[in-house]
Amino acid sequence: MSLELLREGLIGNDIKSLHSIINPPIAKIRNIGIMAHIDAGKTTTTERILYYSGYTRSLGDVDDGDTVTDFMAQERERGITIQSAAVTFDWKGYRINLIDTPGHVDFTLEVERCLRVLDGAVAVFDASAGVEAQTLTVWRQADKHKIPRICFLNKMDKTGASFNYAVESIREKLKAKPLLLQLPIGEGKTFKGVVDVVSKEKLLWNPNSDDGKDFERKPLLEMSDPELLKEITEARNALIEQVADLDDEFADLVLGEFSENFDLLPAEKLQTAVHRVTLAQTAVPVLCGSALKNKGVQPLLDAITMYLPSPEERNLEFLQWYKGDLCALAFKVLHDKQRGPLVFLRIYSGMIKPQLAIHNINGNCTERISRLLLPFADQHVEIPSLTAGNIALTVGLKHTTTGDTIVSSKSSALAACRRAEREGEKKHRQNNEAERLLLAGVEIPEPVFFCTIEPPSVAKQPDLDHALKCLQREDPSLKVKLDPDSGQTILCGMGELHIEIIHDRIKREYGLETYLGPLQVAYRETILNSVRATDTLDRTLGDRRHLVTVELEAKSLETSSLLPVIEYAASVAADLSQASREAVENGLHSACLQGPLLGSPIQDVAITLHSLVIHPGTSTTMISACVSRCLQKALKKADKQILEPLMNLEVTVTRDYLSPVLADLAQRRGNIQEIQTRQDNRVVIGFVPLAEIMGYSTVLRTLTSGSATFALELSNYQAMNPQDQSTLLSQRSGLS
Ligand SMILES: Nc1nc2c(ncn2[C@@H]2O[C@H](COP(=O)(O)OP(=O)(O)OP(=O)(O)O)[C@@H](O)[C@H]2O)c(=O)[nH]1
């Protein structure tokens, strides 16, 4: 596409200038996410950011359901953010790629996936509530991915908003060191603006402006604001001392040149030091405002460009292995009816262009990018190329799934892998860790819930299969399988809301009314002892005789392993061809998919093949079938155990409602670890089996008149006690 056309296209697409699409220098890129507890104001803050940066012409309002980032229909209706949308815009010469992350616990995979591609994040808090349960979860995830952060205390206009309370909760609950870069002018109804502690200026928003674009920035003067100036000078001195404690370079500067008078220290020197401290994650800058009342968002944008890192400041280890060759991570797939799958890529190194052939490491396939777009919520602008540090949207990649790593060719990946291995040897690191870093993938948790899904008629089954295939590429935490006995399609997901949303999307986006069976917990099975079995398969098909005899032993493993550990007796290993070995392993894996008790997957088992005799001419399918049948026979004979998902539960409840909540949890086989005190609230922390906690949000709402909140996360799979196990088995077999 020519530049002329591009220019025209841009005007048509309502984009400000050509400037916004040219590859910006990497130092000027910020890949940012906004994370928060539900309802803290992420969407409203994002909307304001897009408006002030000039990318939207009017202010969206979550309560009216017309925001840009929550563009999926259900999100509009539910008023929550489910799928993250990447939005690209410019602010004062910086390119900002903003990824709106979801806040609901069922979508933590989405959050993880987004965090993986971010260089920095803004944590939005409701200033009247401080740190809430979900903020803690995402904060921990951001710690895991080492993402530098800044905090925005939103809702300063709300009755009950307290800057000090919110700052204290950041200090206490997040164990972070807040750097107060601003102080509010007024709180609740009297909130008017903020004071910039670094520059000693006050920022006041014009009360008559309806979009908050109009605000004035004035230096604090002795004459007009003596009290405030005194307060801010003290706050600035405290900030300087705090930063000097955390940054040696700054400490040298402060103790040398400016030790007599901190007032002489230029704002830029302090800003540079705050940037370094933010990057080192030894402290977090704190700002405040009210997105809804259009106050404090422009300084937040300035802070994003000033304090959060550019992509080249992240020091991602795997980059050195690519030596400038293409390396990108597919972090989201969307399905567009006209254009087919759209894949969001974070480019770590190298460059991408339309018509480029790329190699997908995880899928081990090569495919071609047909077009390259810049993501602007649900609008997309076509561009000629994009370089490292950017987020791109590609058309044409049909096999790429969320979480896949994209490189220029297979040989480039192999070269990077060799460099990583050499590096790993130097550092005595295990090779699989090098591989993990190289692939930079996102861990996909195992789904804990499942239910059957049926199309409205048998004729619609292919349409349902297609819809599920598309949805799975977008969301790898959704699993789909076929029940081998009933032939029904089974949907496996991360939570009740997750399954509900998928059901909803199939209806809206694919026009299919489907029926869900009751939601069930995904159990696992294991064995407790060691058992041996032998089997022979002798079948003649046409004029070919297939004959296999196998003897194997299955025993329980001490360590946890989803896949069976397979061993061969020396005599078997000696003359086993590669094809036969693969056939054996396929057979064993398929037998482990369906345990003898509930048909759930078998885990934590080791299998030893003691003997395997294969008659010449026997097909590999027959080898697999025989081995699989033999293992099933062994598993049936063993002492069997059901494993159930155990959840970490955290309930925040006022003191008055603590007793009924505890009594209810006791009935749900809950195991309470501790009860903490947070302000007037009690926080109950413990474990509870997933099977006992279905529909808990409704129960908790009724028990506490809607005053409690809870967070739930998979802890591990644990053995059920014999009594619970036999109750479950009789329920399943319809005996009770
Ligand atoms: N008083 C006040 N209300 C606000 C402010 N910002 C957002 N809200 C309101 O808080 C509610 C939630 O805002 P959202 O922007 O949807 O919050 P969110 O964090 O995106 O929510 P999820 O997408 O559900 O995670 C809405 O009713 C907003 O109008 C603010 O600065 N002050």
UniProtKB/TrEMBL annotation:
Cite the GO molecular-function annotations of the record: GTP binding; GTPase activity
In terms of domain of life, where is this protein from?
Answer: Eukaryota
What protein does this entry describe?
Answer: Ribosome-releasing factor 2, mitochondrial
Give the function comment from the record.
Answer: Mitochondrial GTPase that mediates the disassembly of ribosomes from messenger RNA at the termination of mitochondrial protein biosynthesis. Acts in collaboration with MRRF. GTP hydrolysis follows the ribosome disassembly and probably occurs on the ribosome large subunit. Not involved in the GTP-dependent ribosomal translocation step during translation elongation.
Detail which positions bind GTP.
Answer: 36-43, 100-104, 154-157
Q: Which reaction does it catalyse?
A: GTP + H2O = GDP + phosphate + H(+)
Q: Which InterPro entries match?
A: EF-G-like_DII (IPR053905), EFG2 (IPR030851), EFG_II (IPR041095), EFG_III (IPR009022), EFG_III/V (IPR035647), EFG_V (IPR035649), EFG_V-like (IPR000640), G_TR_CS (IPR031157)
Q: What's any one GO cellular component for it?
A: mitochondrial matrix
- Key words of the record: GTP-binding, Hydrolase, Mitochondrion, Nucleotide-binding, Protein biosynthesis
Positions of the Tr-type G domain: 27-312
Write down the CDD domains for this protein, in alphabetical order. Answer: EF-G (cd01886), EFG_III (cd16262), EFG_mtEFG_C (cd03713), mtEFG2_II_like (cd04092), mtEFG2_like_IV (cd01693)
Q: Which Pfam families match?
A: EF-G_D2, EFG_C, EFG_III, EFG_IV, GTP_EFTU
| Similarity-based family | Belongs to the TRAFAC class translation factor GTPase superfamily. Classic translation factor GTPase family. EF-G/EF-2 subfamily.
A GO biological process held by the record? mitochondrial translation
Q: Where in the cell is it found?
A: Mitochondrion
